[in-house]
Batch of 2 targets.
Target 1
Amino acid sequence: MLGLLALLVFSAGLRLFPIQHGLPDNHVPDTHVVRAALGMAQDRDPIPPVGRWSTYPNLLPYVLIPCYVGQFALGQIRGEWDEPGAYAKAIKASPERAHLLARVVLALISALAPLFVVLGLRAAGYGRGAWCAGLLSASSLLLVQLATHERPWAPLATFIALSMWPAAIHARTGATRPLLLSGLAAALAFSTHQAGAFAVLIPAVAWASAPRGWQGAERKERLRSGFLCAGLFVVLALTVGHPYLIRYGMTPTEAVAAGGHLAGSQHVSIGGQSVVFQLSAQTFQKLGKALVGYDPLLLLLALLGFAAGLKQRETRPAAGFALLWGLFFMTNQNDHVRYLVPLAVALAWPAGIACERLLTRTLTRNLLLLTFCLPVVQALRLGIILRRPDTRAIASAQLLEQPGNEPIAVGVGGPPLALSRTALRRLMELRELRTRELHRLGTLEGGNEPINGYGLDALPLEDVFEFDLRHRASWPRKRIVDRLGEQAKDPLAVLRSFGCDTILLADRTPMDDHPAALLDTRAASQEPGPDLSLHAQGVRPRLRPLVLPPRPLASWSPGEGVKDARLPLELGFPLTELWRIERPGPLLELYRVPR
């Protein structure tokens, strides 16, 4: 028990160390979970339609709602607010209150995953190897980094780890109760994110591997337990994750995230998320490199123990899940590093098997214990970097101190500047203001100063142009076309029409040959893809390249020689990049707009 407690403290400490990164700004462009929890509480509707607040399942918002109720009650005691409306206004004025609480809660859920790994391997008959696997999953750079986000990926890995524990017991004994518990945990994974549907493979493999026979009464009992497990999986998933399916039925394509891109593709949609079945060798190259860069020791040990993991029935559910998840997500068209998170926690099982064997020899034991320093040092280095001010925060502060008379255009990936009344009024002409923007505008028009000041006259170019960065495509939004006609394809003409005197551009890969999106002179990629249906001409469009002066007026760098400046989101090869990066955020450069 003391060992598990120490592991929990160690795991939670690594995750909570940089938990305030970026705040009060939010540089993680995924606010679904927080927005859904607050929205459900505000509307007093626990089953909103898909897309009302989120396209994710409902479990994590349900977890956060009691936490926000507690935050409200504590604020009442302290005299910060006296009724729900005042609390809502405080959150709109300082959204970091809600985001920080969500980060802490989800990080603590994530910190439980190593415990379930240890308990699962112990149930499979392992000793010291189980503790090594727990340490590897506690210090896994990939798991630690994603645990600092208020997103579903790290909790998803925890529920997957939870499902593997009783699955090992069922695979060894054939007892029904562990199989049912594994199915319920898999349902929690599915209720966290749609990708968690793959967690059903864990109890399924355990069921197929159990020692019961396939004839007579044993087959009947095997089928009975399997159907009961499947039934409980469906009931729990529909209750706490996907109750909108009962209330509203299947989600229409237009309510699915990026639904306009799905025409003509082979895909499956669940709620507001979809998966497109399209193989990509580039994805395997990118994610394979990322996995080596994030957790080289975990990967090496997992490869050493993988065959044994598949051979032994108790560890087959975890190893089989790792194999099937990796084969699918590492070859699919979506190449996001976050898809490796469930794989990392599953790989801890075969890694623990390898450790069990290596620890029997003095030489390999000493070498193994020495190499365990690597993931811990990497995780601490990440925490130190994330605790430093983001380049976007530094740039924002300096720009706010020296406001000009003309609006500043802010390119894709730039800082989320606090907008002035003039800027918000301009933004209203381009799109509907969001809840917090409306609150800020109301505060300014009421003659009051918001918490973060009167703001800057800035024009977010993501509200002016559409960007498909994956394929280097870009085109003007409809309201800009209606306003400027053919000139809308010329960024310089658009900037001049808004009176922009300067432009702030962000570059997340500053050392490559490709400049920021608006400066890129390359043609858009015309490789086949379902999103071509968005464009009447059947090809991806491209704005005219913007030509700017050779030297910027000012710049804010994440570090000298940095090749990958995507923190706090992800890194392509952190094994080396972590030691080049000095602070999170992209390279930012401020240019004068030519007259």
Target 2
Amino acid sequence: MKMSEERKDNRLKKLLILIASPVVGLVYVIALPIIAVATFLGLVTERVIGGVINVAGKTISYGWRPTESYLLGRKKKGKKKK
């Protein structure tokens, strides 16, 4: 008896795989062009936004100079030494 139950389970698994494989293949065939177009658009968008940010970064000055440090306070302009 037990062997026949295992055979039924095995047959059911094979039948499910046989039915599911064309469905999975169809989903893959439909999704592949969509994924390719989305990837292409993402790369183009990244290039365009990166270029705009690069140009904006070169033209905008924030006045921040990481190599300069005023540890004793802000540098005074026009103050004469005694």
